[in-house]
Every structure is written in C-alpha cells, then in structure tokens.
Amino acid sequence: MLKLITPLMQIVDVPMRALQRLLGPRRLAWAFLAPNLILFGLFAFLPVLVNIAYALTGSDQILLRDRPFVGVRNFTDLSQCASYLDANSCKIDVFWRAVHNTAWFIVLQVGFMVGFSLLTALILNRKIVARGFFRAVFFFPVLLSPVVVALIWKWILQDQGALNAVLEHFGYPTVNWLLNPSWAFGWAVFLSCWAHMGFYTLILLAGLQAIPRDVYEAAQMDAASPWRVFHRITLPLLMPTMVVVLVLALIKGVQTFDEVYAFTGGGPGSATTLVIQYIYQTGFAGAPRLFGLASAASIMVALVLVVLTAVQLWITRRNANG
Amino acid sequence: MANFITRTRGRQRLHWTDWASYAYLGFGVLLMFGPVLWLVLSSFKTETELQHYPPRLLPYVQQTVTLPGYDDPLLVFHVTQGPLAGQDVAQVRRIGLVSQMVRPDDPTTIVKVPIADREPVEHVALATSNYQKLFQRFNFLRFLWNSTFITVVATAITLLVNSMAAFALSKYEFRGRGTVMAMVIGTLMIPQTVVLVPLFLITRDFGLINTLWGVIIPGAATPTGVFLLRQYMLTIPDEILDAARMDNASEWKIYWRIILPLSAPAIAVLAILSIMWRWNDFLWPLIALSQTENFTLQLALNSFRGEFTTDWASLLAMTVLTLVPVVAVFAFLQKYIATGIASTGGK
C-alpha cells in the first residue's frame, strides 16, 4: 500500500513545488484547500441555490430552462390546509400525513431512546463486572446498516415469525404486525431506538465519567440519599451532555428514512411514511417526477434542520467555553 | 466464581440495585444479540425448514439416503404406524396424502404409507444451500464488488481531500481562513437529505448518474472529517514544520512526510467512520443508481424485499454476508470506533 502511495505523492510534489514558487508558501494554503472547497461548492452550496430555483418553478421538466416560473406556488400548495391537525383537509394530504408521522416519530423515538440511553449509561457507570463487554453489546447495532436492521426485525415480526410463534406458544393471539398501521409505526419507532441507542449511551457515559469523583465523595460524607445524589448532582452536571444528545437525536430524527423505508416501505398505506420518504417519492420514485414540490418540501425540512444545528453549535460552543 | 461476581461493591454483599443492574444488562444482551443470532441461525436453514411453523431455534436438515436404482438422494422418514411402524424408510415419491416408501435394505419393493403416519428423520446441521444459491442465481459478487469499490475509493478520496484541507486550516495563517471555517460549519447544516433533488441534477449534469463515481464523489468531502483532522493537527507543534522548512522541504513534502504520519490516529478514526458511512449508505445510492448491475449490497438487499412475498432464504444469507465485514471491523477496532464516534458526535 505504502509502496504505491510514495511514488504517487512524489509525482504530486512536482507541480506543488512549482505552485509554491509561484504563490509563496502562505498562499499555497489555497492549493491545499482547493479540492475540498470545490467539492463543497459543487455538492453542498450550489445545490442550495439549485434547490431554490427548482422550488420556484413548476412542471415535470428536468432542465431548468424548460420549467415555468411559478413563484411560491409549490410552497403555498404544500402548506394549504383547512386545518394543520387534519391531513385530510390539506391540498397535498400525503405530505401532511408524512409531517404528522415524522412529528410523532420524533417525539416517541427521541423520548424513548434518550430515556433508555440515560438509564443504560447510568447502569454502565456503576461498578459493573465486564463493563467493556456490556458497552459493546449496546453499541454494536449502531454499526449495522439500516437495511440490515430493518430486515433483522422484519424476519422476527413477519406473520410466521419468531415473535408470533412465541406468543402462540404462551397462548396469546398472534398479530400481523406489519399490516396493522399502529403496530407497524410502533415497531418502526422501536427498531430505530434499538439501532441508535448505543451511540447516545456512549456519549452519555462519557459525560457521566467526566463528573469529578470528589463531588460524589462529598455527598457521601453528607450521607445524601442515592436519589438525592442523582437529582442534585448527576442530573445537573450531566445537563450539558444531555442537551447535546437531545439536539443530535432531533437532527437525526428529522432525517430518518433508511431503516423505516426498508422496514415497511412507508406502509401499510402511508402509516409509516416520513417526510424524507415523501421527498424521495415525489422527486424520484413516482411518475411524473415533481422536482418543484420535492425541492419545496426539502427546503422546509432544511429550515428546521438549520435552526436545530444552529442550536447545537451554540450549545457546544457554550459548553466548550465553560 | 461467586467471589468474582460479588466483587462489585468491595467486600460488601451485592445490593439489590446490583442485581437489578445485572438483570437489565442481561436483558440487554438478549435484546441486542438475540435478533442477530436468530438471523444467522435462520440463514443456515433449508427452505423447507424456513417454512416450518412454529420455527425451531436450531437449523435441522432431513436425512437423505442414496439407494441403487434411484438417481437422487431420497428423504428418510420414520414410520409411526402400520406394518412398517418403528422403521426408517426412504420416500420414493409422494402422491397426495400417500407416500411411496422403500426400505433401504430392499429398494425395489414399494410400500404405501399415509403421510400422517410418518415423520421426517432430522438432525441439526448447517445448510449452506442458501449461500450457494446466492452465488449461483444472483449476482452477489457484483454487488459485493460495487460496495467494496465505493467504500474503498470514497474513503481514500475523503482522507486525502479532508487531510489536505485540515492541514491548510491548522498550519497556515492566511486571509480568508475564518471564512473557510465558516463555510465548513455551513456545510454541516446541509446534509444530503435536504438537497436530494439538486444533488441528483448536478450529478446528472456531470454524467455520473448510474455510475459508481456518482455515488463516490458528491459525499467525498466531509465537514466532519475536516473538523476531526484539524483539531488533531492543531496539536502538532509548529517547530517540527519549521525545522523541515530549514532543510528545504517543500510544503507538500511536509504535508505527506510529517503531518500525515503524525495524524495517523485521527486519520484512522476518520477512515473507520468513512468506511462505515459508505458501506451502510442507502438513500443516495438509491437515487443515484437505478440499474441492477450497479447496485450496492444495501440496494440489492432492499430490492429483494417484495411487497407481499419475500424470498427469505436468499435474503437471510445475503443479510448475514452484508453484516460480516462490519462485525469483523468492529471486533478488531472496537476501541477506535467507540472513541471516534464519541469524539465526533459529541463535538
């Protein structure tokens, strides 16, 4: 490997040396930055502008010059609702059903996941035999691909699957889990928690271990009850980490697509269709390809994410500055 | 052993909270490992065994016997009732509710046995037929190659491009550095999920849709990588660089002879992260690749998922093969992965 890299690097050295003589060592920094910035420009910043351009134009044409300008009509179409709480009253009901699903998904998923991550981190922070092993056990699903996670649980939950067999063995009625809208949604939340909680557990555990020991020793001197120690010491000192975890989980929650799509395909009906899946279906999977609507919807999602990310950056910066 | 377990709280006995903790962790092991183990066990079951309901924990294979006069191996059954009761016989063929059996020591005399009066003779064995089918009937190696190519090439580009940018941002004072840092932070706010349409159109304009390069290039420069490497490179003392400059080393040589080797730990973390991202990536490949021969493993897995029927036998085997590399990487690099993810996620 290294034998291959060394001559390559030596070849690159020739033009870089010439460039250095031309620019001087200080301005050479731009040469080092260039590849990265070109990629950022083409595939991160330019897309934002193109996104706006497509959101403001209509029809199913792919080339921008063939698309008629429609102003904010894509946005007004998307947000035209008699009542925002009732998806059926909206002009584009699939979008609002997806928004409602995503809202519920985030509330349940973030709530349960951060709750269980905290519990797991607290338990792993105790004096536990084989802590490394247990930590790895909770962490390893993080590495599995979303599709694999979805298939693992689909195999268990299918009609003739392991869960129904166990239920039947103990005399309970079996359920067709993935054909029942509420159950399918519940399981989607569950498998998303299952797959990602190890990541948040790890961050929370690091936060717990950063709490100085002597604070606890002082509490022990004062014979404080365990609940009081948790309530008055652990929780307040863990708060900064907790907030980071919550915001991160929210950012990831808004963007959930892979595992739920591979798990249920958005069904039954549209019971588990989330916002990103709506964008995917509107812009890519269906015919006609409504790029304008998909762009408008993704700009709406982007605004939510920008607010959340700004909050995250502000918090981490505040934490870092003490 | 008991002494080893009760060591937890010094010389004290186990408190009830310790028992509760271990119970919780034990349940966690079951919930986290159980499903994966079940998947692996199921993938080694024959198609008949997969149809078996209720499912059995271990994979069973029905015993077969090759008899003179018959080309294919015959399934062996144990007869429970009738004149042959208690004997193991081979089934020649089955017609409706009656199967035609022969005794292994007398393969020419056919005896008719109602199918209710026989049960299969089985033993626990790993059936590899699902895996063989994967290679024979599906283009598994093609998917594996696509996934591997994307993962390796994309990771190499990410490491190179990000480390160059991080070097410039950590070791040079130049006008516009603040602006560039702000740009990097800005890209954090633009995940692929919110620019799918323009990303598709731009990639299409480059003629990269339906090519592996179309999956590799758009995500090659990562803001996370720039941050991670820059933070690490800031800790490398400038004196080393100055000394090298004294010796007339070019800036590029400083970058790859000094900075890169010294940032090896951070680069290792980014490499692991990038491999994970790329191997597991789904949404962008789903949009960028529409021809089956370009599919990655993840896309192939997803395409097996039928609306109503699913070819579970092949799907299970393929799922296992897809997660094997991940588990292998995890087993060897657990510590790196954990710290890497904690440091970037908690950033």
Largest sheet of chain A: none
Count of DSSP E strands of chain A? 0
**CATH topology description of the largest domain in chain B:** MetI-like fold
Which stretches of chain A of 5+ consecutive residues score pLDDT under 50? none
Specify Rg of chain B, calculated over alpha carbons.
30 Å
The structural domain count of chain A equals 2
Quaternary organisation of the protein chains: heterodimer
Domain tally of chain B: 3
Characterize the overall form of chain A: globular
CATH topology of the largest domain in chain A: MetI-like fold
Provide the CATH architecture of the largest domain in chain A. Answer: Orthogonal Bundle
Largest sheet of chain B: 6 strands, antiparallel
> Strand percentage of chain A, roughly?
under 5%
Share of residues in helices of chain B: 55-70%
Helix content of chain A: over 70%
Along the chain, the helix and strand elements of chain A come as HHHHHHHHHHHHH
Q: Determine the number of helices of chain B (DSSP H or I, runs of at least 4 residues).
A: 15
Strand content of chain B: 5-15%
The CATH homologous superfamily of the largest domain in chain A is called: MetI-like
* Class computed from helices, strands and strand pairing of chain B: alpha+beta
For the terminal residues of chain B, how far apart are their CA atoms?
A: 41 Å
Condensed summary:
The complex is a heterodimer of chains A (322) and B (347). With 322 residues, chain A is mainly alpha-helical.
Q: How does this model look, in words?
A:
The complex is a heterodimer of chains A (322) and B (347). With 322 residues, chain A is mostly helical. Chain A has two domains: 2-55, no CATH class; 84-320, MetI-like fold (Orthogonal Bundle). Chain A contains 13 helices and no strands. In chain A, 41% of the residues are buried. Chain B is an alpha+beta fold. Chain B has three domains: 2-43, no CATH class; 64-120, SH3 type barrels (Roll), CATH 2.30.30; 138-345, MetI-like fold. Chain B has 15 helices and eight strands. Chain B has helices at residues 2-5, 16-43, 47-51, 129-137, 140-171, 177-188, 196-205, 212-216, 223-233, 238-246, 251-262, 264-280, 283-288, 297-304, 312-345, and strands spanning 60-62, 64-65, 74-79, 88-95, 98-103, 106-114, 118-120, 122-124. Chains A and B meet through helix 1, helix 2, helix 4, helix 5 and helix 6 of A and helix 2, helix 5, helix 6, helix 7 and helix 11 of B.
